[in-house]
Design brief:
By secondary structure, the chain is α/β, with parallel strands linked by helices. The chain has eleven helices and eight strands. An eight-stranded mixed β-sheet has the order 1-2-4-3-5-6-7-8, with helices on both faces. The N and C termini lie far apart (59 Å). Pfam families: Abhydrolase_1.
Length: 278
């Protein structure tokens, strides 16, 4: 595949850009751990019709005024949060999560990295969360919601790792396939046409510095994250004045979701939130 792309781009950079964009738009389905399957089996579930998809929804805990929304990342799924769901329930939160379009048990069709945000916007007023916990690219989707909807308000947002800019993803794909500048520029054009934004503005620092409808944000990131380097999280924290960064040691991009450190941060943050509200 890589060799074919390297030859093909000599003759048709536009075709190569479309191949790369298709790769960006088709997430791989990752197998769940037994513990993830177990927590999903305890949820109340339903399918929601959205555009060409059936979106799979999960709900844990009793319906009440306190709701926590979990937003997974690209190539993730709701079960990735299995390590923290019981803690949220014990703190008397109703917990809601969805498998994004083309992820988990939702319909498997072509999607984009921003279609999940569009769906969540359409659902937001139905669930009205006070707390959002997002992982990886799920943090971008959460930022998109509040950037596009200043009337939405949130008490607490916990970002478990955050990307910095979308250009780094383009560079990653280009390096992986050996895509040269002409095809890379065509790929950037496709992304800009899809998002209606300049590629240089597609970054979390720009998105978050505009937000005034999130009262408090905590970014939790491991110094040894090999998927998303912590330098990006530091830049986002500088731009997002309502945020603080907690840097953890020796936790990977996915293992952080199962860490005792994260569970402690979440529990303490929820207690502080309760104190400030009272």
């Amino acid at each position: 595949m890589k060799r074919m792309i390297q030859i093909l781009q000599l003759f048709s950079p536009k075709l190569v850009s479309r191949i790369a964009y298709k790769y960006l738009s088709n997430p791989r389905i990752r197998k769940l751990r037994d513990s993830e399957e177990s927590i999903l089996s305890k949820a109340h579930t339903e399918d929601i019709e959205y555009k060409k998809f059936k979106i799979h929804k999960y709900q844990w805990g009793k319906e009440n005024k306190k709701t926590a929304l979990l937003i997974h990342g690209w190539e993730g799924r709701a079960g990735n949060f299995a390590g923290i769901i019981d803690d949220l329930i014990q703190n008397k939160y109703q917990v809601v999560a969805y498998d994004a379009p083309a992820h988990g048990k939702s319909s498997i069709k072509k999607t984009s990295m921003f279609e999940f945000a569009e769906f969540l916007e359409s659902e937001f007023t139905n669930i009205m969360p006070q707390v959002i916990i997002s992982h990886s690219f799920g943090s971008v989707n959460a930022a998109t919601i509040f950037r596009n909807n200043p009337e939405f308000n949130l008490d607490l947002w916990i970002m478990v790792t955050t990307p910095y800019n979308f250009m780094s993803r383009v560079n990653e794909i280009s390096d992986y396939f050996g895509i040269k500048s002409k095809a890379k520029n065509e790929l950037i054009k496709l992304i800009q046409n899809d998002t209606n934004e300049d590629i240089n503005h597609l970054n979390m620092a720009s998105y978050c510095q505009e937000l005034s409808n999130v009262k408090k944000a905590i970014i939790v990131h491991s110094k040894t994250d090999k998927v998303l380097p912590i330098e990006g999280a530091r830049e986002v924290t500088k731009a997002f004045k309502r945020s603080s960064l907690i840097e953890l040691d020796n936790l990977g991009h996915y293992n952080i979701l199962w860490s005792d450190e994260l569970r402690k941060i979440i529990t303490e943050s929820l207690k502080q939130l309760l104190t400030t509200k009272n």
